[in-house]
Here is the input.
Amino acid sequence: MKIGTQHLLQKLVILICMGIAKNLFAQQRAQYSQYMTNNYLLNPAVAGTTDHYDVRLGYRTQWTGMEDAPRTFYLTGQLHLGKHIGPYAGRSRHEPQNHHGLGIMLVNDVTGPLRRTSTYLTYSYVMKLTKTLKLSVGANIGYQQLILDGSKVIMKTYNSNVSNGFTAGTMDGALGVWLYDKKWYAGASVQQIFQNKVFFNDYVAGAEAYKFTNHYFLTGGLKIDLNQDWYLLPSFMVKYAHPAPTSIDINCKTRWRNLVWLGTSYRTNGSVVMIGGLTISNRMEVFYSYDYVFGKNLAVTGYGSHEISIAIKPNPKGRVYSPSDFW
Here is the structure.
């Protein structure tokens, strides 16, 4: 390959990784298939809505077999403050009308030489509207850091500064609302509310600013009891980030005795997800999902994505009654 062509391709790869090629690559957030079991990943208002402390660890490897494909690790934790038992009113006369929630989220997303590390702290306020219906409003504040590993970028004559790597970052935040009952939930959130910019001109000649664009999420789900042991869990998620097209997920899970469940999800961007979970005890659950891409995504058609996560529930209050039972 001629040197000039090689340099042109290297520059293009860097621009794509940083998502700054005139904002053509607007999907800046890590993608998850298991948000159905951890809606806190998408909405800060979910913090404090369970009647137990909730810690979840997850790892996702996307487009397995493709070189430098995205890999994501995430850790979330959220809890309520005060005496609170979720949406099942009447189990305790000490249940407050309103309460506070706290949360923390750590996300490490790696694509090729580019690493994005995000840390957030969350506060929410949960209000009791009726005997079983509650409304939570929440916000998080944090920091996003972008790191280019220069050792993974081979540059001969084009911009030797890139070979040294760089680190840049900015403040970040999100807002959300969450309405829930023991049979259904609905939520809306917006991430990257500040729309801050990070400048890379000192590292990549002619590079534009990397702008964090708003990401909008609308979610909802319903629990349908089939009999004493089985129930269905249809849900949806709508995601929008300008100028990318709107993405819609249609999901359905079936669960047996709160012990084992299987489900599937269809994304309008051309992928199908198979997902399952197992309850080990009232303190632990494990989940696994597999994505298959097809259709319009010709560049990644045939490459699968794996995601595995563990839910740990310290200090459960008796049998766990909360929306996470049916998420």
In short: Residues 195 and 212 are 5 Å apart (CA to CA). The first strand starts at residue 54 and ends at 61. The first helix runs from residue 3 to 18.
